Task: structure prediction
Amino acid sequence: MKELFTLLTNSPEDTKEAGRRIGRALRPGVVLYLIGELGAGKTTLIKGIAQELAGIDPSCVTSPTFNYLNIYKGKAELHHFDLYRLSSSEEFIRSGFSEFLGGDRICCVEWPDRLPLSAHFEKWFVDIQYLEFEQRKITFRSPYAP
Ligand code: ADP
Ligand code: MG
Result:
């Protein structure tokens, strides 16, 4: 796994900009694992990705509180999963979500520890670490250099 970049952001806007940059590197079939505690900024980063890949207004991208999956369609199809309320990968499979993962879309997954371990697709990773009030450390890893 290669580290493509690590950066510090000092505002939600900076994190969205990092999301746009990550969005430009993503390609169909990739599943992006977003790792970080509640409030770290995973959804904020996905706002930038969705803006870049699907032309979606960032205000339309929210944590799917009542859904587990939001789908954004633009020049690419982006599937945004928030699996916080799932208890296990068995529940993921039982709920029929597997068919929305992988394939030609780009998937961004919050709480990816709920995904089945056996799933085989190209995994990329973003770690977001809460440093202080408006400061976050973002690390982006992929199996390939750009
Ligand atoms: P998560 O999806 O990881 O639970 P959210 O993106 O929903 O987190 O929430 C992050 C919160 O932190 C938002 O209220 C956002 O405005 C705030 N925030 C403050 N500074 C930053 C930053 N540098 N990057 C991302 N979010 C930030
Ligand atoms: Mg979230």
Summary: The pocket of magnesium ion (ligand 2) is lined by residues 42-43, 63, 82, 110 (CB under 6 Å). The domain at 2-142 is CATH 3.40.50.300 (Rossmann fold). The helical segments are 12-25, 42-54, 89-94.
